[in-house]
Amino acid sequence: MSEAQAHAEVHHHSPPTSFIGKYVFSVDHKVIGLQYYGLGLLAVIIGMVLSWLMRLHLGWSTLAIPGLEKLSAAGAPGNVMTPEYYLSLMTMHGTIMVFFVLTNVPFAGFGNYFLPIQVGAADMSFPHMNMMSFWVTFTAFLVLMAAFFVPGGPPLSGWTAYAPLSAVGVEAGPGQGTGQTLWAISIAIFCVAQLLGALNFISTTLDLRTKGMSLARLPFSAWAWFITSVIGLLAFAVLLPACILLFLDRVAGTSFFIPSGLVISDKMQAHTGGSPLLWQHLFWFFGHPEVYIAILPAVGIVSHILPVFMRKPLLGPRVLVGCMVAIGFLSYMVWGHHMFVSGMNPFSAILFSVPTLVITIPATIATLLWIGSVYGSRMRFTTAALFCLGFISVFISGGISGFFLAQPSIDTYLHATYFVVAHFHFVMGVAAIFAMFAGTYFWMPKMTGRMMNETLGKVHFWLTFVGVYCIFMPMHYLGLAGNVRRYAAFTDDFLSPLIPVHQFITIAALITGAAQFIFLFNLIWSRLRGPKAPDNPWQATSLEWSTTSPPPFDNFGGRQLVVNHQPYEYGVEGPDGDYIMQTAPEAAKAR
Amino acid sequence: MKMKLFVPTLVVLLVSAALATLAVAPPAGGTISGKVTYTGTPPKMKPIDMSKEPTCAKEHAASPVMTENVVTGPGNSVEWAVVYVSAGDQGSAPGTQTLKFDQKGCQYIPHVLAMQVNQPFEIINNDPFLHNIHPLPKINPEWNKSQPPGTPPQVEKYDKPEFIPVKCNVHPWMHGYFVVLNTSHYSLTGSDGSFKIAGLPPGKYTLTAWQEQFGTQTQEVTVGAGETKSIGFVFKALPY
Amino acid sequence: MGKLFGVVLTVITLVSTAIFIFHGNLLWLPVDISAHGHGVDHQLMETMYGSGVLFVASQLLLGLFVWQAAGRKEGWKYKTFPGGAKPMVISAIALVGIEILTLSFVGSRVWAGVYLSPPDPKSLQIDVQAGQFAFYFRYAGADGQFGGLHPDKIDEGSGNFFGLNPRDDVAARDDVVVASLVIPVNRPILLTMHSKDVIHSFYVRELRIHQDIVPGLMIPLHFTATQTGRFEIVCTQLCGLGHYQMKAYLDVKTQDDFDQWLKQQEAAQ
Amino acid sequence: MEMAAGHHPIVMEKSPYGIPPGKLAMWCFVISDAVTFSAVLFAYGYLRVGSPDWIAPFQFFPTIVNGLVMTFVLLTSGLTMLAAVEAAKQGRTAAGTRWLWATCALGALFAVLHLLEWRRMLEEGWRLFQNPTGGSVHFGAAFFSVTGLHLLHVIGGVIALAIIAIGFARGKYNRIDVEITGIYWHFVDLVWMFVFPLVYLMNAK
User: Fold this and answer.
1) By residue range, what is the domain housing residue C198?
2) Fewer CB within a 10 Å sphere, N or C end of chain D?
């Protein structure tokens, strides 16, 4: 009865009654999922405002932004942004977006809420650990935010925090004092949270599946969350020590990443014999898988939602899962493609470029599977569906530029230009965000019991879809013109003529950003005033739709679920429509 | 409430009175004047290549700016040296008027800014692009601020005497000095190396001459009322 | 709604592609002035064509299918793509696989040509010191000898950016230190690059060359410029608050002009 | 097994390897922790290879001898842990508890020996950023961070063992919990088998 005993711990807790127990320190995976979602929402708003400020500065570098001086007197004397403050905002934008939005929402947020439901479990295997992982994440977020208010302001060495700039301390720049230390601490804490979360996801997926929910019957989203947590388990395990070593370099006088004889601000540094490349190796060994930690859940979510609105199963479901596994596996062999010009052995550049290009094969297969699946369908163009289609489009646009950057010979020209910015914003940022929107419009009825407003949703989609192309497409051309990224202003002779393009991008960014408030309003308004949602508003098949909206504390009211069907049986004659729920009795199989 | 105000007011009155008397006390104070010179070969003044900042490069195209760590003139005179009363000072009026430290054409004007403790000074950016000003004090608090073009002057002061190297992080060749003194009796040598400290009450003084590269020298001087003493400081210079 | 999506997607795709095709000089690579650059450019164009076709094809297909999916009547029985998943997998592996194989094969040769080929022994040797936030360049001077580097001797105020020690080191006395890189045309150049503080990067668009300058390492970089003119060297590795202002000029002169220039500089030292 | 609502059994899909969640999670933790250790050891190796001035400072006596003793202690604790798990499997609670305490004691002994050695090295002038022998400063950094990380794991394990021992005696924890602790403890044991040769033997004079 080993499992019995093991499982006993999972289920014995009963619904909390106190407010704190229900909504703050809740062990209910649904509440925790919403908490992650809320944190992500807060983070994405901050991150977006930061990007507005940055874009304004890039378009009009001497522009006085009213009130900015209040935010940071030294950072914006007379409301004019200083370059160090621009870099600080850029660093915070990157860190917040990558860690607290792209990692938190599609993976931790939706994953926490729907993974247990989709496998038919009452909760995660370790509810208390689950609660802990959220609050640890939250702590990490607070520590990072604190950097805004310490003397010198936030760090300015980018989300990649390349040593020695990030390791030598305040001589390297205003933000490199306390701010950078807080950054290192925050990320280290974040890693711990992610590891705890990953343990939970893995054991839940493997051990808490209800009767009949064989691995072959898992929805794509569940697969994606499972694979992602495996990637995260190994990736964050490397970032954690890296951050600790960086922290030691900063406060304990070690020299892991700091070579000898540095003279910074006319001060000779005491450190000796470290290696800046060591940081890059450790960081990118995490950093590249992190890209897939952000995008795989998005892939899973989109693949999960598309069939619902196409009313037909996806092509080659097993192939798709295989692609996700392959991408996850390959992601550990390609970190060097971030370091083509870093001064590492030129031979290794070739070794790293080949697997990088190979990754494009599973990615292409996945894309073609989606496109091919759209063929011959009769689609219901809900907002969720539109965002899925938008995801496919931006995923293509972002993936294509990968062909260029994967080749060292071309990367030598395009490295650290806006071409790269366009690439990762499309494929990692926008794509993942689109999946979040799709997920929100699709699942919000289940999570809140209220339908979201479709009209507002569609307005939001069109503005966003056209907007992101206006923002990021031009960046490719800027990149080809050699426009260097991470510049606070464009003073060079060859860059100043490009400023009008930047002004265009800025305007597009402001409009697109403003459009997001339509979404925010829709979210809040629908939560309060939206029409009540039925249990299965989209006639979908997976388990989350065979319970009430929102689900009860233990998800299924203690019913024994028996899964008899594949997750995507659409376009068939089912008992109550053109679909068959996974939980429908065996007999329901029409053909 | 009233008492609260009364005490500080009184203190202020007394102090200012005292200072006033000290300042105006010697009607015909003594004067020390002279020249700062060098022997040997001083390091060559090198032309500064400002091509990184085209505006400045254009501005100085005709006559390139020279390095200012050792500026010498005819008769072995040494410019930018500070001569000041380092001991025996019988009291100084606080430096009140605001000094100016100008960033113009990628140069610090003046190269050396001598001031008294707690004397306010303005840092002005007169260039159409950003400057970053980063003084590197050892005992005074360190700060590092950027000045985008067209931002208001930034007013600072130091409360401990110190020789503070100043650099612009953005334009590595821009170097200057803040010389913070706790006396009002000081003089900065001009292009002819001459200095003049007037209004000294009769007495025995220790005079110190400081130059960023050569270091310091001291001399004992006694001046009587209305007397003018002439002394010279000679630094030993090496080519490298 | 679906038809609209098809249209919008098509428009976006065509406009984006059109700008790639009918680019002005402004939004495109600048003239290539290096001996190896044509390889890079050729490689880039190959990739541009290959991926361009993939981009347009996939976006338009998506748009088309969505357009169709919008027009259908209630009670439509869905069609599966002929052949199911197989054609996808095969075409992906065939098309992309072949493309990336050729790309990486050809690309590696280009890369090897630039970074794995030994420098010409007759190269002109120039020493590069990067620091916050400027580049400085050093020529060996009359004696053809570089003075040793002593970080503790670095004193920017007196123009000693490299940390030379002319007092004890005779070789250092005649080293020519300047703030812009002046080189003779059609002559192999060998740069030895090092940084005094953090990571910087040496990027000249026209040379199609890009190399990080990592403190603690002496990084060699060799190239040959084939055109005279004045070009910008910029830093592309985030190095601090002055990053965007960190630049220098590359002056490619004829051999004679270069020799003359060098003489003047030696005199000025 | 019982559910919160309605006390009738819920039938689960068989776990692929029949591993209960607790054990599975521990295995996953062990894997990720192994990666963490590899990362630190990688950094150590990277810097060591990159430091021409690397000097192996350890005398055979006392350091290596001490290391051998520590190794012996830790291996023994591994055996006692095995015994504890066996006993727990056969339901011999008393014996199991005793073996757990034995393991706990040996672990504590290891920690003490280690801390004593640290103290000796600190007295010799070793620091994270300082090397009294004049060799590469990275030795101190690498040594203290690698062994420190391991020591943290040992101390954590000792505490866990104590808690488990008490709980197991009281019947609060079952044999699975003992096995899980066992997995962790053997992992700590295994890591030492890498740390000892890499950090000690490779730095013996």
Assistant:
1) 124-268
2) C
